[in-house]
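Hi support team,

I've been running sequence recovery on a batch of backbones for a student project. Most finish fine, but this one hangs at about 90% for roughly twenty minutes before it completes. I'm not sure whether the input is malformed or the queue is just slow. I've pasted the structure tokens below so you can try to reproduce it. Let me know if you need the job ID as well.

Thanks,
M.K.
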């Protein structure tokens, strides 16, 4: 199965990802990776760091002449801000007394990480726990997106809610084609303006905002995942991958929690036979039944909590002295829901690629495409 791991700290030299198990002869377009990296850095409500970093991917191994070799692929995204932090972050010797953080921030990994890893400086925790790590996750997820596209599987999404300003309309996959041109990835221009005004008000209060993103997948055939081994359920795999993203506090598929409020007759997708083909006229299940894809569009939503670094700080404790204080502040965004959407999309791409390759096997793209074509 395709596997990945990332490394790197927020203010370290670089972020890296190693992808194992990719088939050979998969076309890799670094320009497309860079486009998704740029989308991750955009969106209304972002902070000052996005003006420092202009993320670009570098391929260190596993690709020759824009095609994968079948060997591990190593991707790197350089941290431009490292030049300002080298004295404090260098692995070869650093001034660890400077930039030390003891006023731990609520909602972050700071305090739990300090206790777990026996540290005296929360910077040793926050540097890795930071959402900056997701830059290289987007890079790896875009490679997975290319793998899926070769099979005719497309992944997209949009922002459904920001700071309580919600868009409850339903959109077709085609209607979302240009949604990334919106400042908040919202299809409804009027709702986007309302959300921007709310973000401005939140910024004025030195507060932060979260939101809900919706991811859509079309072109995935039925039968991916399993009802026989519950650790292999497709919905469990996707939800677990998305919950692994910083700031995500909830995932739902299809109707999700709304299904609990309806009667069964208004939840389950009835099946019809039209000209010898099984069809469903609704998709309340979100494309997954019994832990397996059913051939309909996959619909997944993720809830992002407000960013826990507030410029006004929150009540906390200095773990050095035990005294009450205000939490430390780091340079932060007011709202990063557009970044969240790109990150969730990329994570779903990778999780799906794992399930597809797990079922189909194959060492090269020709084998995999031929096997996928044989599926009903």
């Amino acid at each position: 199965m395709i596997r990945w791991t990332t490394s790197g700290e927020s203010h370290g030299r670089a972020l890296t990802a190693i992808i194992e198990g990719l088939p050979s002869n998969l076309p890799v377009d670094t320009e497309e990776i860079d486009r998704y990296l740029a989308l991750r850095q955009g969106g209304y409500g972002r902070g000052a760091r996005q003006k420092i970093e202009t993320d670009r991917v570098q391929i260190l191994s596993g690709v020759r002449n824009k095609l994968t070799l079948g060997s591990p692929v190593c991707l790197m995204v350089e941290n431009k801000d490292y030049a300002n932090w080298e004295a404090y972050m260098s692995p070869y010797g650093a001034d660890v007394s400077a930039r030390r953080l003891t006023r731990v921030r609520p909602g972050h990994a700071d305090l739990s990480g300090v206790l777990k890893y026996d540290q005296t400086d929360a910077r040793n925790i926050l540097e890795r726990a930071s959402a900056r790590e997701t830059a290289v996750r987007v890079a790896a997820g875009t490679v997975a997106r290319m793998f899926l596209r070769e099979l005719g599987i497309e992944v997209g999404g949009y922002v459904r809610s920001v700071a309580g300003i919600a868009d409850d309309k339903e959109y077709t996959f085609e209607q979302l084609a240009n949604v990334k041109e919106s400042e908040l990835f919202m299809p409804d221009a009027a709702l986007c303006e309302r959300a921007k005004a709310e973000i401005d008000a939140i910024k004025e209060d030195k507060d932060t905002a979260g939101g809900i993103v919706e991811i859509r997948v079309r072109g995935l055939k039925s039968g991916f995942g399993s009802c026989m081994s519950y650790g292999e359920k497709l919905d469990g795999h996707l939800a677990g991958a998305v919950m692994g993203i910083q700031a995500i506090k909830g995932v739902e598929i299809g109707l999700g929690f709304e299904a609990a409020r309806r009667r069964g007759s208004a939840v389950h997708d009835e099946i019809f036979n039209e000209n010898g083909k099984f069809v469903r006229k609704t998709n309340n299940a979100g494309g997954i039944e019994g832990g397996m894809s059913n051939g309909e569009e996959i619909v997944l939503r993720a809830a992002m909590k407000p960013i826990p670094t507030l410029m006004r700080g929150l009540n906390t404790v200095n773990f050095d002295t035990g005294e009450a204080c205000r939490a430390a502040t780091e340079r932060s965004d007011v709202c990063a829901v557009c970044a969240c959407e790109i990150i969730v999309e990329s994570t779903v791409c990778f999780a799906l690629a794992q399930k597809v390759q797990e079922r189909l096997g194959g060492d090269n793209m020709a084998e995999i495409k031929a096997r996928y074509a044989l599926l009903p």
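--
Follow-up from support: It reproduced on our side and the slowdown came from queue contention, not your input. The two ends are 22 Å apart (CA to CA). No action needed from you.
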